[in-house]
Amino acid sequence: MRMYLVSTLLVALFSTVFESSIDRAFTAAKMNDWPGAASALDEAFTQDPQTFDANNLHYLRGRIAENQNEWLRAREEFNKIPADNPLYSLAVWHALRASVQIHDEASAAQLLGALPREFPAELKMRIAREAGQPLAVKIYEDLSTREARLEQAKLQNDIRSMRDLLRENKDDDVALEAARLFAPRVLTSLDEIDVAQVFAAHRQFEQALPLYEKAAADPAHAADARYETGRVYFQLQDYRSAIAVYRAIAKDFEGTDWQKDAEYQIALSYWRMADYHNSETAFLDYIRKYGPAGNKEAAIRNLVDVYRVLGENRKGVETIDRALMTRLSPVTRQVFLFTKAKILYSEKRYAAASAIFQQLGQMKLRSAAGAATSEEVQYFRALSQSKLGNKAAAEAIWRKLALDEFSYYGQRAAEKLGRTQSGRLALSSTAACLPAESLTVAVEADLANLRHPVRSEISRSDVVSELVFLRLWDEAAFWMERPGGARIPPRPAAEIAYLAGRYHRSIFYADRLPKTESTLPLL
Questions:
Q1: What mean pLDDT is predicted for residues 289-301?
Q2: Is the pLDDT of residue 343 over 50?
Q3: Where is the domain boundary, 419, 443, 464?
Q4: Which pLDDT band, with edges at 50, 70 and 90, does 520 fall under?
Q5: Is 224 within the bounds of a domain?
Q6: Cβ of 94: how many Cβ atoms within 10 Å?
Q7: What is the domain range of residue 350?
Q8: Residue 332: what are its φ and ψ, rounded to 5°?
Q9: Is residue 472 part of a domain?
Q10: How many CA atoms lie within 13 A of 155 on its CB side?
């Protein structure tokens, strides 16, 4: 009996000492004290190698060695993760990276072959960027992403592939880099337009302009290139130059869609110049000349805005009324009704304005630029009722809006009701201003229930659970979003992403939670 008690006490003592060592390692790693973390983990391994293995601490030791640029030690630790371990493929990737860093090409090639085919392309790309050309090309050849194709084209000086990439998609970063590489080597006016379109899509207008101007010398592409030149001047806010370009297009391509589109852009350019009278004239001419064959609805909307800026509300309402008697898209009809109601409200014609707001409130409002939301319509309806002396009706609407205390019109409605910021919101704002260190401690404490206890033998688990236990938040945040990964509820997912510094993803998850004091700091 005495021997049993002694052995039990010794096990408890060693367990306490072991857990104290790994706690020191976690604390040191959190403070970026890599030598301290490495020392504490080495002590823990000496104290209990079996428990060290069972809790995947070799993986953590490898990560710490990486941060110390001790690549041989890192590879040694990662190679200790067995093939049946959930962290095996990750350990292979880290060992591969270590082999690349120490220029062990044979080992790197072998480890690359051990990676699962479905292993994330972005992680393979990271290896390729750090590796020498032979291994990098092999990685790029096995990937089909645009990023991989671009990197391969750069390594092989493949101009044709660069051109294909920017023609396939002009909006992403791959297209922009391909355009910059291809621009000095353009061969035709069509190439010039393609590259210029990429620059314009990324708001690199100064780089797009000379390419469009050069392409305009080719009669086969003159109209397109000249029109886009006008658009570039417009985006650069050089409206006089834009108007000059569009006038020349309208003259040189009379009777074509180029003339029609150019004349619409002339009206818009006057509007942006704040030359409202010339803008009015240009829009009226455009509407009379082209009618439904042109961009009539947009032209009328812009014309109404011109009248509102000029203070000519009567002309604005008359223009809207004429438009409402014609066939309009549902969105444009709703925009015109809302605009008319606001004009009437500004003229203190509250009864007429309220009737239109009520009409809009009964419609299914469409989402579009310039269109009103249901909350906006109800708020202005309440304002109209209040001005008419119907306080009870107005307050009923405001009370309903104020239920959503975090929305813009919810807060405006609360102000109208004489309410101050709610206690919950005020406390949340205070919490949101906590020092970053205090907030990190609170978030880590909240995640404690996701971390498994120190175990004495290996058990079935998943990648994310193991990474959370090891407090490797960067990898946990990445792998929890991989297909087939562990399903993490939104709150801990937001917290893991926050600790990983992936704040955009933290907001993504936190925004799907009830906005309470404990989640607002993540927003």
A1: 93
A2: yes
A3: 419
A4: low
A5: no
A6: 25
A7: 329-419
A8: -65, -40
A9: yes
A10: 19
